[in-house]
Amino acid sequence: MSPAILLLLAVGLGLAGWLVARARAWAFRSNADNGRLAALPTYHAWYVALWILVPLGVFIVIWMVASPHLIEQSVLASPAAADLPEFAFQRDTLLREANAVANGTANAVFNEGAKPLVEPFREAIGFYNLIGFLSTLIIGFLCGTWAFLQLKPDFAARTRVEKTVMAALMLASLVAILTTLGIVVSLVFETFRFFGMVSPIDFLFGTQWGPDPMSNPDNPDPSRFGAIPLFWGTIYIGAIIAMIAAIPLGLMSAIYLTQYADQRLRAWLKPALEILAGVPTVVYGYFAALTVAPFIRDLAVAVGISGASSESALAAGLVMGVMIIPFVSSMADDSIAAVPQAMRDGSLAMGATKSETIKKVLVPAALPGIVAGIMLAISRAIGETMIVVMAAGAAANLTGNPLEAMTTVTFQIVAMLTGEGSFDHPATLSAFALGFVLFMVTLGLNFVALRVVKRFREAYE
Amino acid sequence: MVTVIHPNLEATDAKMNAKDVSVYYSDKKAIDNVSIEIPSKYVTSFIGPSGCGKSTFLRALNRMNDTIPTARVEGEITLDGEDIYRSKMDVVQLRARVGMVFQKPNPFPKSIYDNIAYGPKIHGIAQGKEELDEIVERSLTRAGLWNEVKDRLSDSGTALSGGQQQRLCIARAIAVDPEVILMDEPCSALDPIATAKIEELIADLNGNYAIVIVTHSMQQAARVSQRTAFFHLGQVVEYGRTSDIFTNPLEQQTQDYITGRYG
Ligand SMILES: Nc1ncnc2c1ncn2[C@@H]1O[C@H](COP(=O)(O)OP(=O)(O)OP(=O)(O)O)[C@@H](O)[C@H]1O
Ligand SMILES: [Mg+2]
């Protein structure tokens, strides 16, 4: 039976429990001397309904996982399964086909050998559907009855329901935290495997990058795993070129928006700017690769710089800078707006002009927030992948020339994971070490930035 | 209604003169046809119930209302006979000549030194570092703050106590050598001791500057000012020597207000 039907059944039982419990609580109420209960009837109703829904939810999840195995087991135990081939792969194929026909997702078997299995499958499915249906009914009924028997006029249904709600909310937030933790653990695990093959020293301080996924995995050449060119490319593109573009533009637009733009213009401009943040990065990637990079190359050739490549750090960095503008500007906007009006008035009353006030009072006062915004922007930029994949190139050049192709940590993560190497080849595993370094750096940046913002907020409470 | 001027108010030379001044916020009239003189050698206090337009009128005197987009001023206000709302008037210059101290101390988040040096730097008053040092010391001394902060000039101005911050703001205002100082309830955020220091300071500054102070404290007005204007519903009801206003008010509204029977 499909889980949807079981779920429907559970909801139906829950609803029934809800209604019955509420009716019961109403009855308490009309019988009680003062007409008051320890909790409103709806809380009694929810108490019973939750006692039905939560156990059933757990049961259905377990059943969904377990029932296919149970069905398969019983089919294998049937006499028709005696003719199945030994080889596990063929066997699974036949079983799958028979199952598909039995539950109606396919019309006919492709392999003749699967045919005798269809009927046992049909029987097993029918049997277990019945079991599942009955179990749902029985569990729902038992739990519901048990909860129902607890209802009394002075029963503290409300506190129990509240506790359940709290537990559900906590569970939801735990999912996010645990997922993050799981990512970190798996990252750390694979990173350590990698460092078992290539020493961290060679990795962190080597200046040659060129892992060969086809080489002998047991004997990697550590001199080809130097990640410095990647770190440099990442910093150069994401933290230097992109920021040279994003900081002045972001800051100036924030100043314009908070201090000069009139209310109506601001209502238009601010969302428009924020739309920039919502453009998928792959679109920026196109723009960088198809428009900006060729333009920069042509420009370089025109001014007589030979050997300008069609992929350049400059193109990737500039486009990334544009992408980052909203991050810088919206944080700067918030922090400038958070500077008390009294500060502005104080400066204006001294005879300072608007721009003097901005330059000498507002921006310095908002500086912590602005810096935090820049840090968040950097952490965003160095983790950015699509633009560099499309526009920065794959060559691990350790150079300061922005017109040359450069590669970044994120690019190489993609390249290594999608390369030809087997999964436990050091070249592939290096992607995890790179990811780990990136993760630590962005984590650090975000952590510091958020702390700075918090201190800043407190300063103007 | 016409402002009642006390008969025994002797003529003094006026530093500022407001004639038929009205101030609007959008369409709402906050100041209604006020005409008043600010004498050059005295402290003038503005008193009156909350919301009657004291701050609005005060801010009209150095065009701080310009920073509020909805505010509009009608009528004529002169400083030494020149209309400050004429189109050629340089607001930067005006505010250097008519300084302002706010209700809540608002030092800049800079060092004490830089707070004082801010105005002189903007207006190019000091020629060099030495002159600037001198201005900083003189202003802080005048504001009675020098001895308290001379060893910590590089500390942030916001690290001072509330009363010290307010004196810092006064020092900041006098650092550009203004002719008029406007103070909007400068003591309302301070304790009695800090208030007494500010009042002392106002008494010291009296005579060198034309000072206008908005206050909710009758005693303060009586202690520090020689002229008092009583505001009510956007108008000046009564204007005269402080002693006359407090001992011999001519209008019933004034009397009610100063005896605490208002409202
Ligand atoms: N920025 C503004 N926009 C619109 N209306 C304003 C603004 N500032 C003040 N007002 C209105 O103008 C009137 C006078 O306000 P103002 O602040 O001048 O009063 P006040 O006498 O200083 O009061 P208080 O003693 O409480 O400081 C009030 O009705 C107030 O609501
Ligand atoms: Mg006021």
Automatic annotation (TrEMBL), chain A:
Part of the binding-protein-dependent transport system for phosphate; probably responsible for the translocation of the substrate across the membrane. It comes from the Bacteria. GO terms for biological process: phosphate ion transport. InterPro entries: MetI-like, MetI-like_sf, Phosphate_PstC, PstC_N. It holds the Pfam family DUF3708. Residues 232-449 form the ABC transmembrane type-1 domain. The chain crosses the membrane at residues 47-66, 125-149, 169-189, 230-251, 272-296, 316-340, 361-382, 431-453. Belongs to the binding-protein-dependent transport system permease family. CysTW subfamily. The keyword Transport applies. This is Phosphate transport system permease protein. The keyword Cell membrane applies. Gene3D superfamilies: MetI-like. One of its GO terms (cellular component) is plasma membrane. GO terms for molecular function: phosphate transmembrane transporter activity. Keywords: Cell inner membrane, Cell membrane, Membrane, Phosphate transport, Transmembrane, Transmembrane helix, Transport. It is a multi-pass membrane protein. It comes from Pontixanthobacter aquaemixtae. The lineage of its organism: Bacteria, Pseudomonadati, Pseudomonadota, Alphaproteobacteria, Sphingomonadales.
UniProtKB/TrEMBL annotation, chain B:
The keyword ATP-binding applies. Residues 16-258 form the ABC transporter domain. This is Phosphate ABC transporter ATP-binding protein. It comes from Pontixanthobacter aquaemixtae. Coiled coil: none annotated. InterPro entries: AAA+_ATPase, ABC_transporter-like_ATP-bd, ABC_transporter-like_CS, P-loop_NTPase, PstB-like. GO terms for molecular function: ATP binding; ATP hydrolysis activity; phosphate transmembrane transporter activity. It holds the Pfam family ABC_tran. One of its GO terms (cellular component) is membrane. Keywords: ATP-binding, Nucleotide-binding, Phosphate transport, Transport. It comes from the Bacteria. The keyword Translocase does not apply. GO terms for biological process: phosphate ion transmembrane transport.
